[in-house]
């Protein structure tokens, strides 16, 4: 069995510049996201204590689903962009903490697009400040993922509208069960 090389991670990430809204251009499908999600995005806001507030949103069947969490450096002494992200489930009764890795594998010098992964290579995201990404940039990010030993055949492009919904726009998934439904492939 071949050993995978250690992933290269961005060093010296400017957290202030990283804050704001990012659109999911593509990702590996995961059990914790609705299967028919569209206009998926993340909004990051720096907290006073240095942690990052995370708001992940997606729309499915015309309804907005979201989950909030917090991100922080995995090792405060390191300059590597290796973060931990913590969410609580179920979102409507936050009792079970779920912790994940969030590694910034690549970001352009203008902080307009990024490649996010984690050590097991089970999850991968291509993010952009805009809801659409030029094909040559998308191809560049896919190649970078390949170079990090990701199976890019699993990448699924996320549908994004020409004019994405504003935050809080549209009916909400008030039952708070989108994460349960997603476990069953819905």
From TrEMBL:
Signal peptide: none annotated. SUPFAM superfamilies: Lipocalins. PROSITE patterns: LIPOCALIN. It comes from the Eukaryota. Residues 152-176 are annotated as: Disordered. Pfam families: Lipocalin_2. GO terms for biological process: lipid metabolic process; response to reactive oxygen species. Residues 13-160 form the Lipocalin/cytosolic fatty-acid binding domain. GO terms for cellular component: cytoplasm. PANTHER family: APOLIPOPROTEIN D (PTHR10612). This is Lipocalin/cytosolic fatty-acid binding domain-containing protein. It comes from Malus baccata (Siberian crab apple).
């Amino acid at each position: 069995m071949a050993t995978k090389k250690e992933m290269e991670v961005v060093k010296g990430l400017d957290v202030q510049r990283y804050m704001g809204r990012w659109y999911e251009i593509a990702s590996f499908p995961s059990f914790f996201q609705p299967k028919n999600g569209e206009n998926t995005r993340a909004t990051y806001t720096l907290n006073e204590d240095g942690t990052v507030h995370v708001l992940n949103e997606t729309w499915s069947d015309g309804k907005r689903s979201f989950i909030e969490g917090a991100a922080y450096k995995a090792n405060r002494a390191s300059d590597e962009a290796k973060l931990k992200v913590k969410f609580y489930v179920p979102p409507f009764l936050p009792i079970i903490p779920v912790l994940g890795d969030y590694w910034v594998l690549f970001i352009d010098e203008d902080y307009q697009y990024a490649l996010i992964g984690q050590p097991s290579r089970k999850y991968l995201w291509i993010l952009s400040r805009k809801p659409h990404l030029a094909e040559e940039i998308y191809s560049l990010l896919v190649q970078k993922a390949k170079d990090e030993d990701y199976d890019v055949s699993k990448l699924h492009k996320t549908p994004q509208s020409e004019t994405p919904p504003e935050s809080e726009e549209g009916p909400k998934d008030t039952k708070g069960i989108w994460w349960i439904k997603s476990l069953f492939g819905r």
